[in-house]
Amino acid sequence: MHSRLFPRFALSALVLFAVSVLPARAGVQNRINAPVSSSNRVAVQHTISPRALRAQDLGSAPADRKLESITLHFNMTAAQQADLNQLLIDQQNPSSPSYHQWLTPAQFGARFGLSSSDLSKVTSWLTSKGLTIASVAPSSNYVSVSGTVGQVEQAFGVSMHAMSENGQQHIANVTDPQLPAAIANIVTGITGLHDFKLKSRARVATPRYTSSVTGSHYIAPGDFYTIYDVNQLISGNSINGSGISIAIVGQTDISTAAVSAFRSASGLSSNLPTIVKATGYVAGIVSADVDEAQLDVEWSGAVAPNATILFVTVGSSPTASVMDALNYAISNNLAPIVSISYGNCESGWGQSELNSINQELQQANAQGITVVGPSGDSGATDCDIDPPADFGLAVDFPASSPFATSAGGSMFNEGSATGTTSYWNSNSSSSTSNAGSALSYIPETVWNESNSTGFGAGGGGVSAYFSKPAWQVGTGVPSDSSRDVPDVSFNAASGHDGYLFCSVATSAASLTPCTNGFRDSSSNLDVVGGTSVAAPTLAGVFALLEQQLGGGTANRIGNANPMIYGLANSTYYNNVFHDITSGNNNSTCQQGTTNCPSGGSIGYNAAPGYDLATGWGSLDVYNFVNKWKLVTPTGSGVATGSAISSTTVTTSAATCSNSSGSLALTIAVANASGTSLTAPTGTVQILVDNVALTGTNTATLSGGSATFTVNTSTLSSGGHTFGAVYLGDGNYAASKGSLYADIVSSSQKDFALTPCTAPSSTASGSSASGITFTITPANGFTGTVNLTANVDNSVAASYTFSPATVTISSGAVTSTLVLTADQSSTSGTFLNAQNSHPASHIAPWYIAGSGASLACMMLLVLPRRRRWGALLALLLSVAAISASGCGGSSSSSSSSGSGGTTPSTTFAARGTYTVNVTAISGSLVHTSTVTFTVQ
């Protein structure tokens, strides 16, 4: 396991020197023209982590706690954003003089960053508040500082609290930071104010490569070469990544000895990664992340065996994260290809952080950098960890960004008629054949190994935040006006068939399990799956492509998607892509929750052409590399907007139990660029459940707003998402907003559940006052209605409905819900049903770490993407059994006397929770929400 160090300048004088030696920016205007006064402050909004809102608040954080990397990300003027948007189009347009004219970070800063004068004013103010400058971006668009909690609170006017999440201690801001107005006006967002890191979720898989011990098969590098047609490049044309660099970003140190063992077992030359220490680095291996890092480094280097692998890391820093490593790799232009195997569902990010990262991805593309990310491992329900899904359809960011390529997941499907003998040798080949045993391409289906204990399927679906880029066109691409993912896929299964890799066995970095080929001294193997394998392998493919194109800056790819979709729309489609047409990425879902009115499962099916389960399918790498220059990119020459816009959808009508047959929407499109511009103009397109309405489906803006009435009489009973996509104008880029509403049929027998929302609060260990719900029949409905409740994240609480089943014969009836902030043998039904469905959502899932200390970590939020098989059932059960302990709760017990039972009570942690109330009668489902505060 490895270490990290914290690179930062200790003296403000050094910072000012660093600013002074930046290239002159004649084209960048000074934007701080007023004195920087701490007495006139403005809030930088939407910086509070969603995880902090759900965690147990323990009060003020220790004032002496060190924060290694707090970053102020600077926005662009409207003119700069317009210029960048056009540049990104022109760089992918073969007819433009700017085609493939990539910028250096200094050139990017000279055109899109802050002026030297403004940077000096910002850094001077920061150091005057006692903060230490950790780094100034070479691209002049962010500054990172370090300091104690006390210094940060004083400088930013922010309140920092200690938190507990599933038994782990954290710190986070509970208010938005307040900056001097002159600085706040140029800041897009601030990151690093909390230590809720993305978590790597891993599952050790049951091996299936051709083994001399068991006869089963895994995927070794030689198998990947055969199945995806890489051999012709590596052996015949010497296209092996030579001269090309790939940056892998992580948040741990790694074992280079394990990398060496992997390459030796794979029959690859010794080509060890270079370690790059990003801002905030602190030495140390993190057990929850090291397997992810080893996997990413080893498999990107396996697909492109002669490429230079740069592992960019913050080590074991308590507060710096993989996103700091991503920023460092981009702003320092370290490599033409960057792979990140972490992410979270879009709504799991704070809006400020999501916007800041997306801006970094734009910079990456302008510099010619191709960014690859995983589509997620929870199928179509990326916000959920385990079944049943409660949060509806969702996709994973940063892979959902239009400026990244999303790598989805497939699995092999040999078919029952021929078994596996037609595709595999009986034994692995020698190391000279890179340990492979596959004989040919193997047909693929959608990766979906989800079961009752955990999700395990390729992510895919429709972005809730990003509108459809001009290049995303072709057979099967939905007409949803939204960014769709994934773009392409590779095998991501863990059980059939997982990838071999080598990791560290203990905290000693010199130890590795690969002591006898891929096996350890006990003949065990490390096997992994998930879309976090698809991402680094795709990065390796891009390295092969760049070498084939000639290498060097001029042959960087930048955003690969216009060309990927160009190939998919060309006559070479069947040569380049393995179209995957079977399977789905469905997730079982909780009846009555978002997108799941009737229970069952939700997701997307594979289909000919593009689909929301595997994108265009997997690649024939040889043809992909050789056909690349024979097509033109899609979306070339299409104008986009300039400044950032934001779209919101509201209604004055009820958002639950609406039985009027129509829903009047108000759409507001605002200037979100932080610059002075006129209101957005143009049109918005109306969607229902991410599908454009048939017939009239647009409205024209006036003063930045428009109205539209949706006919709901033809919609099914239950919840629906009403969306609006702003199509952009000469000043503004497109944006997307949505509204969720529960519809009661205006013509069929149905019922309504009210109120739509309600508050409830109580002290931990006590019961709250009852909430009365009314169930009202519509159109002659009669029958029984069952009432249930569940919570959106882990809390030791219970509930009772009185009565839990109501019968409607004519008029409305009522039932009273009582929430109790503990769980005991005398409680009603558990909100969390922790013995069957631990609910620590908004983060995909299974956590990494060589099978160690999984219990509490299973319930943590957000990691990405790989997966382990053999120990999964055991680990999940451990996590479920330990859920109350991981929740930071306390318990007490009392004896009922000799021979009696010993009831146990677990008290709910302080915090605010969303309770979903569901009323079900047959296929009819209606929902309401309760905001439950435990004091």
By secondary-structure content and strand pairing, the structural class works out as alpha+beta
CATH topology of the largest domain: Rossmann fold
Low-pLDDT ranges? 1-26, 206-215, 833-901
Strand residues, percent:
25-35%
**Which architecture of the largest domain does the CATH hierarchy give at level 2?**
3-Layer(aba) Sandwich
Q: Please report the first level of CATH classification, the CATH class of the largest domain.
A: Alpha Beta
Number of E-state strands: 48
The whole-number mean of residue pLDDT values reads 83
**Fraction in helix:** 10-25%
First-residue to last-residue Cα separation: 41 Å
Computed over alpha carbons, the radius of gyration is 27 Å
Number of domains: 4
Sheet with most strands: 8 strands, mixed
What shape does the CA trace take? globular
What descriptors fit this protein?
19 helices; 935 residues; Rossmann fold; eight-stranded mixed sheet; alpha+beta; five-stranded antiparallel sheet
Describe this entry's structure for a reader.
Belongs to the peptidase S8 family. This is Ig-like domain-containing protein. Residues 218-631 form the Peptidase S53 domain. Pfam families: Pro-kuma_activ. This protein has 935 residues and is an alpha+beta fold. It has 4 domains: 12-76 and 113-191, no CATH class; 221-619, Peptidase S8/S53 domain (Rossmann fold, 3-Layer(aba) Sandwich); 645-743, Immunoglobulins (Immunoglobulin-like), CATH 2.60.40.10; 750-934, Immunoglobulins (Immunoglobulin-like, Sandwich). The protein contains 19 helices and 48 strands. Strands 10, 11, 12, 13, 15, 17, 18 and 21 form an 8-stranded mixed sheet that branches. α11 runs parallel beside α14 and α12 runs parallel beside α13 (351-366).
